[in-house]
Specification:
Structural class: alpha/beta
Protein name: Thioredoxin
InterPro entries: Thioredoxin-like_sf, Thioredoxin_CS, Thioredoxin_domain
Number of strands: 6
Helix content: 25-40%
CATH architecture: 3-Layer(aba) Sandwich
Pfam family, one: Thioredoxin
Strand order of the largest sheet: 1-2-4-3-5-6
Number of helices: 4
Order of helices and strands: EEHEHEHEEH
Number of domains: 1
Keywords: Disulfide bond, Electron transport, Transport
GO molecular function: protein-disulfide reductase activity
Shape: globular
């Protein structure tokens, strides 16, 4: 498995074969599909770090360009795209930049 934990910020960067295993092991997981050159994605980094530290959700990122098949599988046609998984199944998709509060509220709605 090629899962790599980003330096102490609560955000996991995933490869193709990892996403299903990680979201199945997590009750609630928020996945951001991003690209390196996306300005909105770069602005979302501190928001994701905060969510990773302050919520019970697992926060994951998947680089669309490096993992195109995974992005296509989960309907990530633009960056950033957020997919919320509950018990291993995608339940909600949001496209474009989101506020920290909107993502926090979304996670809270599906958390126990």
């Amino acid at each position: 498995m090629t899962t790599q934990m980003a330096e102490a910020n609560g955000v996991v960067s995933l490869g193709d074969g990892d996403i299903e295993a990680v979201v199945e092991d997590s009750g609630v997981a928020l996945v951001e599909f991003y690209t390196e050159w996306c300005g909105s994605c770069q602005r979302m980094e501190p928001v994701l770090e905060t969510l990773g530290e302050t919520t019970d959700a697992t926060v994951l990122t998947v680089d669309i360009e490096s993992h195109l098949e995974t992005a296509i599988e989960f309907g990530a046609q633009s960056a950033p795209t957020f997919v919320l998984f509950v018990d291993g199944r995608p339940v909600k998709q949001l496209r474009g930049s989101q506020s920290e509060q909107a993502l926090c509220d979304l996670i809270a709605r599906y958390s126990d």
